[in-house]
Write a structure and sequence with these properties.
There is one protein chain. This protein is of the alpha+beta class. It has a domain at 44-130: 2-Layer Sandwich (Alpha-Beta Plaits). Helix content is 43%, strand content 23%. A hairpin with a 3-residue loop joins strand 2 (83-90) and strand 3. The longest helix is centred in the first third of the chain and has 21 residues, at 2-22. 18% of the residues are buried.
């Protein structure tokens, strides 16, 4: 039981750190390269969703690819109104995809996975929100309170 919670905590921390890293400004003079991301969404009406697509252990890679192609997975996932924040392939687990999704698009995201990935992957969804601004505000207030005490 404890092992499962530690793993989930590690995964959520990984997703949070990935999200923080994705928010770093571009390096000056760096070529942006091709962009597959739609325009950034307003954070007030969007959520961050971590999707885990676990490889089904009874299928090999060619079988999984056939299922995904037959169901049109790559045509419907991710939905057009979602922004891919990060997409990681974790060996032994599967795809770990962090998306910024408008609140109105959560159902479309769920249907894209249900219609495109079922039979190839087991899926998990974790809705969250960007905590960075809240954390920064807390740290600033904490430092100000520390200065007031001294």
């Amino acid at each position: 039981m404890l092992k499962k919670h530690v793993g989930l905590l590690a995964f959520l921390l990984f997703g949070f750190l990935t999200l923080l890293n994705a928010q770093q400004p571009a390096k000056p003079g760096a070529s942006p390269g091709p962009s597959f991301e739609p325009k950034a969404l307003a954070t007030e009406d969007s959520v961050v969703v971590t999707v885990i697509l676990k490889h089904q252990q009874d299928k090999n890679l060619p079988e999984i690819r056939r299922i995904l192609e037959a169901q049109g997975f790559w045509d419907i996932f991710p939905p057009k109104d979602c922004r891919v924040v990060s997409w990681t392939l974790a060996m032994g687990l599967g795809h770990v995809i962090v998306l910024q999704v408008p609140v109105s698009g959560v159902r479309r995201l769920n249907l894209a996975v249900e219609n495109g990935a079922w039979g190839a992957f087991d899926s998990e969804f974790y809705l969250s929100y960007d905590y960075k601004a809240i954390w920064q505000d807390y740290i600033e207030r904490r430092e100000a309170a520390r200065d007031d005490r001294n």
